[in-house]
């Protein structure tokens, strides 16, 4: 049984992830909830690492940029890449 607090919805967006060293990579998200999101990365990340995320959402016909702090919660190897799960901190 899944222990998720919030329901996930499909959410395909370009996401800019910046780690604590200032290294930025551009990822593709796959799903989103009120507490976190999943993304696909070409590079692994450290579980527990704090990162900044930047992506755009459309609300009431307007495009807005969100800047969120998050923590890497899991890193799963996938076909030629990694699936990252993050939880939002703000």
From TrEMBL:
Residue ranges of every copy of the PilZ domain listed in the record: 2-90
Gene Ontology molecular functions: cyclic-di-GMP binding
InterPro entries: PilZ_domain
Pfam families xrefs: PilZ (PF07238)
Listed SUPFAM superfamilies: PilZ domain-like (SSF141371)
Protein name, per record: PilZ domain-containing protein
Lineage of producing organism: Bacteria, Pseudomonadati, Pseudomonadota, Gammaproteobacteria, Thiohalomonadales
